[in-house]
Amino acid sequence: MRRSGIDIMRHGCLYETEPAYVTEQPRFLNSAIRGVTKLGPHELLGVLKKIEKDMGRTGGIRYGPRPIDLDILLYGKHRIHSETLIVPHERIWERPFVMAPLVDLLGSNVDSDVVACWHSYSIHPGGIFESWEKLGGQSLIGKDGMKRVLPVGNSLWDWSVKTSVMGILNVTPDSFSDGGKYQSVEDAVSQARMMILQGADIIDIGAQSTRPMASRISPEEELDRLIPVLETILKMPEAEGKLLSVDTFYSQVASEAVSKGAHFVNDVSGGLLDSKMLDVVAELKVPYVAMHMRGNPSTMQNSENLQYDDVCKDVASELCVRVQDAELAGIPAWKIIIDPGIGFSKKVEHNLDILMGLPTIRTEIARKSLAVSHAPLLIGPSRKRFLGDICSRSAASDRDPATVASVTMGVLGGANIVRVHNVKDNVDAARLCDAMIERRASFA
Q: 291 and 268 in contact (C-beta within 8 Å)?
């Protein structure tokens, strides 16, 4: 689409659904994009048909198996009714697999007269949102064969099934908790194996410390630490079916790690510390963790970066900007994981407010983008200094009980992924939280 004169501004979530109408065919993947183009509606239709053809679509039975199907749902404020094109698309309102990603493109706040016009096209007076609710709305997700998924590796990951535990593997000499413990390949791989056996779903490998005031090393030095460990872990039988992420803010490191087999990129800067990062991740076509941080590890705790009017609202707003930049670079919203950055440019009270305010962060993000508000949410409170300040535990390794408590609060508040040093105890905490959430849902 980008090569054909369509600037993609926003993406919906990606949905895996049961096939419609002709049911004896593979499951569908559905999404929607919002773009800007100088192409007229019929020119646009022609471009889309060419894309379909280039991607292997040929004639066949209506609604039957096909590699791709592109439709124009809405076109500015225009109503179109010709032999070849009807806009708004006449079957929008009856199809949950169309309505869900269409709703994702909107915010709960109507942000333009074009969006207001789209709402006016709805068959219900409450606009597109009422039409979606009449179909079943959010209650449809996870039921009737419709679920949000994130493509990673060769699979589609439904992160809503259970809380995922991300084990931290620092191959650094200076990380705040375990710096120097896993510098040799043998020690690092042994720790990764233990975390997997304890129940980790993801191993997050970092070769550069991002603790406050950490000295920055070059991409080359980071790669020298990282790649031997990554390559060895990938060869472990225990790692089969597990995900490996690379914790880096360098695009060069991200590119090399993904080429060696890492499944996604975890960037504490949200793309702010390397101007090439977002473009590189878009080319890599892997999921991307966008974390909230102000400044860099050396400046993030200065007084200017610790000023918030309302930390949850401000973090949500700033994350939206980072995600918008990622989308404009070509990273779809359905490949983005958001992280509010506990411990990064935050005071003790800010970290507490975030742990208690994850639903608020989602609600604030939803004002601008419902798709981003549905993204997997990652939290990383593990052994952070604020836990030590509250519990009077100066040694990071003594903060595991407080970590379990913070993880519990986060999961019950809507976190989907928890990043921790102590996998064993936090796997149990996550399982208990999941059981409570499922039990609560059974009464709904």
A: yes
Active site residue 419: yes
pLDDT tens digits, one per residue of 310-331: 999 999 999 999 999 999 999 9
Which residue numbers in the chain have pLDDT < 50?
none
* pLDDT value, residue 293: 96
Active site residue 2: no
Instruction: Name which of 60, 32, 45, 130 is nearest 371 in CA terms.
Output: 32
Q: What is the pLDDT of residue 144?
A: 67
Q: Spot the catalytic one: 34, 147, 225, 384.
A: 384
Amino acid at 395: A
List CB contacts of 155: < 8 A, sequence separation 6 or more.
none
Q: Which of the following is catalytic: 10, 242, 322, 419?
A: 419
